[in-house]
Amino acid sequence: MTTPAKLYGRELSAYDEVDVDELLAKLSQEELTMLAKEVDPDDNFLPPSQRNNYACEKDPTGPLNRKKLIEHINKQALETPDRPEVKPYVPGVIRGKKWIPPPPPEKVREAEEQITIDLGDEYEQALGTATQEEIIDLAAILGFHSMMNQDQYHASLLNKGQPVGLGWDGITKATKQKVYPMDPPNDTDPDKTIDRVKANDQSFVDLNWNNIKNISDEKFEKLFEALKTNTHLEVLSLVNVGLNDRTAQLLADALQANSSLRVVNVETNFISPAGVVQLVRALLATTCVEEFRASNQRSQVLGNKTEMEITRLVEQNPTLLRLGLHLEYSDARHRVASHLQRNIDRNCRLQKQARASLSLRLPRGRPPAVGVDSNFFNLTPPSVETTTPTTDRRIVEKPIIDNESISDKKSVTGDGKFVLAAPLDINPEPHSTPTTPEPERRLEI
């Protein structure tokens, strides 16, 4: 049960019948001024000078002069005398009562006490006679990283020996930076590559203009115009070449007409978020681009509206497998990642189905039947036009020519003679020793 609010010992409901205007009429001007100072009305329409309790009665001295104000503050600080010290300062003499920290609790003191563990005589002797380098190696093996620096830790793991002058009390020096050689400049000739793209060279499948400076817009126009009719180029890499929105629009038009590109990389350029959206929209017109990268552009943040538009376009693309863009919002990242994973799974299923259908179309070797001579299936059939007299099982003086039946049972020797294969030897007992086949017979034609 809650206690009712009270004012001056009486409940608030007792003041409902009090006439506030009648009470204010009985107050004098001084009492009204004091009441106004004590009450802070919550009225946003009143100026701050009338809502606060402070009321300055001094006349204004004019506009603010910051320089004079700072000079006045400094002058007052210099002219104000310091407070006199009760006891003068003497070096080495403690003035007043020295602060002594309180003793730690009992549990903390017990935790700080050294814990003694009986390791046995063998381990005690080994640790007692171990050198400092061996102790450091043991600490590295046990994972005590805070007891050593990075050089000691890696030297222990690689068994290189501890650095000279570095121990438990040694001075840790900065590790020298590893100097890596600079990447060689890109020596690709843009004019030659444009000619090869325009000529639709079958051997030219990878175009790399990365980090080539001062490429004119005319060369970009020629390249993108040639891409519309090229059918062999698969990789287009234009990293740090100075692409802008105008050239990005030309690239988007080229992507819509091209049908062979699989990888498009335009990272580290000056493309605006609207230009990136145009490139992603152009990927819907082609069904061959599997990887698209356009991060690190002029605007680091694309914005919520742009990211949602890119997400919508990516979800409509059934062939895109990898996307190189920095998306700030988690909803866009999750939706894009889920759709790309579905595309990858669908692509894997299609590849498995293609391999399975290809394996069904390929001819398979026929295994030899049980009880049939294996030489029967190793014969090389002659041309269909040549006829060889033969019978069903044995040779007679007047053979019956049957081209269709003998095409599967005859072969040609080196001297131009036909050889009939041995007749079928059906063994009723397949697990027994097969009978010896009859010798081959030759016919002179």
UniProtKB/TrEMBL annotation:
SUPFAM superfamilies: RNI-like (SSF52047)
Organism, as annotated: Euphydryas editha (Edith's checkerspot)
Pfam families with a match to the protein in the record: Tropomodulin
Protein name: Tropomodulin
Gene Ontology BP terms: actin filament organization; myofibril assembly; pointed-end actin filament capping
Gene Ontology MF terms: tropomyosin binding
InterPro entries hit by this protein: LRR_dom_sf (IPR032675), TMOD (IPR004934)
Region annotation Disordered: where it falls in the sequence: 39-63, 421-445
Gene Ontology cellular-component terms listed: cytoskeleton; myofibril
Subcellular location: Cytoplasm, Cytoskeleton
Keyword terms: Cytoplasm, Cytoskeleton
